[in-house]
Amino acid sequence: MSPSLEIAVRVAGAAVVFGGMALWEWQAPRRALIVGRAPRWPGNLGILAVDIVAVRLLVPTAAVGVALIVTSRGWGLFNLIGLPEWASILIGVIALDLVIYVQHIVFHHVPALWRLHRMHHADLDIDVTTGVRFHPLEILLSLAIKMAAVAALGVPALAVLIFEVLLNATSMFNHSNVALPPWLEPIARWIVVTPQMHQVHHSVERAETDSNFGFNLPWWDRLFGTYRAKPSAGEQNIVIGLPIFRNIAELNIVRLLTQPFRNDGGAQC
Ligand SMILES: [Zn+2]
Ligand SMILES: [Zn+2]
Known about the structure:
- The protein has about 270 residues and is mainly α.
- About 60% of the residues lie in helices and about 0% in strands.
- It is built from 13 helices and no strands.
- The chain has helices at about 5-25, 40-55, 60-75, 75-80, 85-110, 110-120, 135-155, 155-175, 185-190, 195-200, 205-210, 220-225, 255-260.
- About 40% of the residues are buried.
- One zinc ion binds next to helix 5 and helix 6.
């Protein structure tokens, strides 16, 4: 697979999902935004631009590159035990999802890593752009962890590409300000992390912030006891964000980039 084809697939997939979710939440929002789009979208999309330039386009190609090298040399667990290719792809995608679930918990509990990840949580509303709002250093670290997992397990390149496209798509989906029909929500929650499930993770209540860590598959939270069905304040009254960084001046891109290195929280609004 050529790197340019890989990038084209990733960009096209992300653009279609972003456009679709933005349209859906504009037409049928789950709840009224408190701060709204205008103060938030320039910063959130600016972060996406920084991430794209810094790492999103360059390093994932390296992750697929690692997969190609590992496969050609017969390295990694899946190759050592002679797993058929279809099984390596299926188990590879699921295993990478488990890796980022564990990584997400670690980013919540190790103070230096939480400083990077909390920028994602400091958004004062949650919508499709929150799903692309990750500090470039977090993206970089996360990709390094992914590359190590790909090498150790011997995950095929196709599985890495499928996982990356899925992760981008589900991140934008489950941060969107939309709701599935009430009959579908409980069924969908067994297959994919839904917007109403991930919303709990963005609650200002710390016990709720430390729940629903999954990005793609909802199974890990149920399996490891981190699942929380609803926010205690209720679906409509949940307060989004963190107790610090509640000033809308913090939504500026420069403030977003420097947030991990500050304790001030800005002036209160
Ligand atoms: Zn988190
Ligand atoms: Zn999130």
